[in-house]
Amino acid sequence: MDFYEVVKKRRSYRVFKPDMPEDDKVNRILEAARLAPTWANMQGMHYIVVKDPETVKGVWKAVGQRKKFAEAPMYVVGVISESGSGTNTNGIKYFPLDCGICFEHLILAATAEGLATCWIGWFNETKVKKVLEIPEDFRVMAITPLGYPVKEKGEVIERKPIEEIVHYDKF
Ligand SMILES: Cc1cc2nc3c(=O)[nH]c(=O)nc-3n(C[C@H](O)[C@H](O)[C@H](O)COP(=O)(O)O)c2cc1C
Predict the structure, then answer these.
(1) Contact 60/71 with Cβ under 8 angstroms?
(2) Nearest residue (CA) to ligand 1, atom 13
(3) What spatial distance separates the first Cα and last Cα of the chain, rounded to whole Å?
(4) Residue to substitute in 8, 10, 12 for testing ligand 1 pocket (most ligand atoms within 8 angstroms of CB)
(5) In what order do the strands lie in the sheet with 46-50?
(6) Domains of the chain: residue spans and CATH
(7) Which of 76, 107, 119 is the best mutation target for the ligand 1 pocket, counting ligand atoms within 8 Å of the beta carbon and taking the most?
């Protein structure tokens, strides 16, 4: 699929078929995340691939929203420690940005593979860490269910017009 097609096709899916995504597809999307750029190439991101049904249920409970998320066949959880990235000259910590870049690579690759995802930012971090036995110094920054959509959505349209967000030469 052409890159711009992938960008337009990516939508947030909240209802999934029970079919488990194939390993080769999952491996390719993890590879796309692995190749993402990070602060000073520190590559602090780790990905927990959750397929065991009991653990999937545990993640869904820790997310604590949307009944249909419980039916996703699997989840990918992105974690990074603060020391796994840098701090810029303005004091901004880059670990959330590194996570965003890597995880969006994963999300777009999943779209290219015909899989459905949904960025999840609303969850109980303590519970997720407990269920997945994530080390203390790591922060849980991104979660997505992964599966096949029950019904494909249309292209992204609900966005601000380009004139509102793009500035030439000066703000
Ligand atoms: C960082 C981030 C966190 C999000 N968290 C949630 C969430 O917790 N639950 C949810 O249902 N959707 C969540 N979303 C999905 C957004 O609501 C969705 O991307 C937005 O409404 C645009 O719709 P689209 O993804 O279909 O284009 C999140 C998206 C992002 C980027």
Answers:
(1) no
(2) 120
(3) 35
(4) 12
(5) 46-50, 74-81, 138-146
(6) 22-151 (3.40.109.10)
(7) 119
Ligand 1 pocket (Cβ < 6 Å) reads 11-12, 14, 66, 118-122, 156
Q: Which residues of 150-169 are buried (b: 16+ CB within 10 A; e: fewer)?
A: eeeeeeeeeeeeeeeeeeee
Structure tokens at 68: 């249909």
pTM above 0.85, yes or no: yes
**Is 85 in contact with 95 (CB distance < 8 Å)?**
yes
Instruction: Report pLDDT digits (tens) over 39-98.
Output: 999 999 999 999 999 999 999 999 998 888 888 999 999 999 999 999 999 999 999 999
